[in-house]
Design brief:
single chain; Nucleotidyltransferase, domain 5; 3 domains; five-stranded mixed β-sheet; 13 helices; 37% helix; ArsR-like_HTH; HTH_ArsR_DNA-bd_dom; ATPase_NBD; ROK family protein
């Protein structure tokens, strides 16, 4: 991009008072005039003019072509959602979903693939980069159009480095430079977060935007949770907040010894209630199960061993969630993941334990619900986290507005 003197313009937009406020207002999807922007931001008209000029030059804001109620051009402005793309990947233990998103984080195209996360980061991320190229090719775009990338993973992520730290089910990933692997291909910010955090953010932003306190519990191959506190994703000091899957739980009646968890400890919640533990216990009962999906199919068939194990797991999950409810006092608890899809065997036990073990003040208005985004929760959430990272802090990128509009977002 060049400026009016024909010189190369800076690659980024530097800090100026009011710029982020105006951009955030327009990123919400509103189409507004300068007068309306000034009224909503409480900035002076001259400041609005200057900041809009900078955002227009950077390609982040475009004239909308809207008209006033009197039929005269109103000088309305909108966020340029089609000026580039985000690429995101939601990596699970046995499958991953890649998405091509517009600059609001809305999914335009996606690819689902089976994987084994224990194949290691070189193999898995190599496949991610290959499928990212496929998504861009299908959109007729190149790497230069990518303004941000994001990856969610089923393990603890250090907030500062974006690296996973001693992940129980991600063999070979400890300390691997995930951001560096992608930024070597795409010259843009790369965001990495644990899957439950991405799911929590996606659910809150998409389904519960007015809810300030939300707990997301993922019950899949592992057990994890993400916290929204006062409207913000709560990661804790280092990114370890919400890891309830490795809380110690008392041994249930009928269990001879505490099972060993993949983290190396014994008696963890996940060692009883995670999908991998359900597969382990069903195999011990002589069942031919190879995956968590196989276990879910047995549950839906009403197989008695699977049902018994699920009911025990639901009570243990409920007790762990109850402790979190007492500590955190969320308005909404969202249950997601492969096992949560077997709602009839999990939700009743979880609800009963939460209401029995949590304080009345903490449960008098609580809602315990299933995920509305379901299998898309992770990819939606990490896309929104990328958008937040790119457009709510400096330096802001400069983009070249596309002459053609991107395809319409897919519905969740």
């Amino acid at each position: 991009m060049t400026n009016t003197q024909g010189e190369a313009a800076p690659a980024t937009l530097e800090p100026t008072t009011g710029t982020l406020e105006i951009l955030d207002l327009l990123r919400s999807g509103k189409v507004l005039t300068k007068t309306e922007i000034a009224a909503r931001t409480e900035l002076s008209r001259s400041t609005v003019n200057q900041r809009l000029d900078a955002l227009l030059e950077a390609g982040l804001v475009i004239p909308s072509g809207a008209e006033s109620t009197k039929g005269r051009p109103a000088g309305s402005f909108a966020f340029n959602r089609t000026g580039g793309y985000f690429l995101v990947a939601d990596i699970g233990a046995t499958a991953m979903r890649m998405g091509l998103c517009d600059l609001t984080g809305a999914i335009l195209d996606e690819i689902d693939l089976p994987i084994d996360v224990t194949d290691g980061p070189t193999s898995v991320l190599g496949r991610v980069k290959k499928e990212f190229s496929v998504l861009l090719d299908r959109a007729g775009a190149g790497p230069e159009s990518v303004l941000g990338a994001g990856v969610s993973v089923p393990g603890p992520v250090d907030t500062d480095s974006g690296q996973v730290v001693h992940p129980p089910i991600m063999t070979g990933w400890d300390g691997y430079d995930i951001p560096g692997s992608l930024s070597s291909v795409y010259n843009c910010p790369v965001i990495v977060d644990k899957d439950a955090n991405a799911m929590a953010f996606g659910e809150q932003q998409s389904t519960y935007p007015d809810v300030r306190h939300l707990l997301m519990v993922k019950i899949g191959t592992g057990v994890g949770s993400g916290l929204i506190s006062d409207g913000r994703l709560h990661r804790g000091a280092d990114g370890a907040a919400g890891d309830i899957g490795h809380n110690y739980v008392s041994k249930p009646a009928g269990v001879e010894s505490e099972p060993e968890c993949r983290c190396g400890n014994t008696g963890c919640l996940e060692a009883y209630a995670g999908g991998w533990a359900l597969v382990r216990d069903l195999r011990a009962q002589g069942q031919d199960v190879q995956s968590v999906d196989d276990a879910v199919r047995l549950l839906r068939m009403g197989e008695r061993h699977a049902v018994r194990l699920a009911r025990t797991a639901s009570r243990l999950l409920g007790e762990a969630i109850a402790a979190t409810v007492n500590l955190f006092n969320p308005q909404v608890v969202v249950l997601g993941g492969q096992l949560a899809a077997a709602e009839e065997y999990y939700f009743a036990g979880i609800r009963e334990a939460v209401y029995r073990r949590s304080l009345p003040l903490a449960t008098r208005r609580i809602r315990i619900v299933g995920s509305t985004l379901e299998s898309q929760a992770g990819v939606v959430g990490i896309a929104l986290l990328v958008a937040q990272s790119v457009f709510t802090r400096y330096p802001l990128p400069r983009i070249t507005p596309s002459p053609e509009r991107a395809p319409a977002p897919r519905s969740a």
